[in-house]
Design goal:
single chain; alpha/beta; 7-stranded mixed sheet; 6-stranded parallel sheet; 11 helices; 13 strands; 38% helix; binds 2'-monophosphoadenosine-5'-diphosphate
């Protein structure tokens, strides 16, 4: 199996199919996608459940997504996950979207069945499960600050409102995007959402700080907040995952604050995606083992 496939490979899938045993019938579409750890986790789950198929990475540019869906469906894929930059645009390319994904305005999981594509968003519930795993708390009653306003932030903010968080503040480099998200959350759940500047003031009075921006993906990225802004009693969650701790997590550690990276959210959104594709519980232990968590 290749590390990363392309749209050209999908166009020529029958030629490639003989090289894949068991066949590839699931994957993640994104750009960039090479860093995705979903294949390790999903292939462990498929093997544990005795499902004779594999999951692969596909480097798909924004303008290629519609064609990639068409081809995946034609070659009998069970479904796909979507990552940057597809989560929002994909909404318009599927036949059905569930209520949560529609209110989030973003999808990360698509199932192909009987010629139709249906979409859901497991990032939101995956995030709630991750916070419960890592910090032993529910979102209900928590005052949450979300940094970012992209696809991941939309799912997380909606989930916080859905679960009855005690306060929701959004901070984004482009304030207009945060304002739009705040309006959408208010409309969906009637929750009051505050838009704050992306500065140290953002975390004042918060219980949980969540970074959904891509800042921290590279070790050289400057921190979004100064080290001094992280209080000891703040819980800090960074949806970025990788081998090195992000600057935000280093700052949290230095402050003695509880902190966790995005591997737990990756795990839980992946387990819920597996459940969506196969209508059965995911083998969480094997999936966690594959990620080393
Ligand atoms: P995803 O779907 O994974 O959330 P996205 O929609 O591309 O990805 O969103 C990326 C988020 O990271 C956005 O909130 C973006 O801020 P803008 O809305 O201002 O673009 C944020 N982001 C990316 N690079 C950033 C940087 N250098 N500083 C601050 N925020 C940044």
């Amino acid at each position: 199996m290749k590390e990363v496939y392309t749209l050209a490979d999908l166009e020529d899938w029958q030629q490639l199919a003989d090289d894949h045993e068991p066949p590839i019938r699931l994957g993640v579409f994104g750009s960039p996608v090479a860093h995705s750890r979903s294949p390790e986790m999903q292939n462990a789950a498929l093997a544990a459940c005795g499902l004779p198929m594999q999951y692969a990475r596909f480097e798909i540019a924004a303008e290629e997504l519609a064609r990639a869906f068409e081809l995946a469906r034609a070659v009998d894929f069970v479904g796909v996950n979507l990552t940057i930059p597809h989560k929002i645009v994909a909404l318009g390319l599927v036949d059905a979207v569930d209520d949560f994904a529609r209110s989030a305005g973003a999808v990360n999981t698509v199932r192909f069945e009987r010629g139709a594509a249906s979409a859901t968003n497991t990032d939101g519930p995956g995030f709630a499960a991750a916070i419960h795993d890592d910090f032993g708390v529910a979102l209900r009653g928590l005052r949450v600050v979300v940094l970012g306003a992209g696809g991941a932030a939309r799912a997380i903010a909606m989930q916080c409102a859905h679960d009855g968080c005690g306060g929701l503040m959004l901070a984004n480099r482009t304030a207009a995007r945060a304002q739009q998200l705040a309006a959408d959350v208010q409309q969906a759940y009637g929750a009051v959402v505050e838009v704050v500047s992306l500065s140290d003031h953002a975390v004042r009075g918060a219980d949980l700080l969540v970074n959904t921006t891509s800042v921290g993906l590279r070790a050289s990225d400057p921190p979004l907040l100064s080290r001094g802004s992280i209080r000891r009693d703040l819980m800090v969650y960074d949806t970025v995952y990788g081998t090195a701790a992000t600057p935000l997590l280093v700052a949290a550690r230095d402050a003695g604050a509880r902190n966790a990276n995005g591997l737990s959210m990756l795990l839980h959104q992946g387990a819920l995606a597996f459940q969506t594709w196969f209508d059965c519980a995911a083998p969480l232990r094997e999936m966690a083992g594959a990620l080393g968590v």
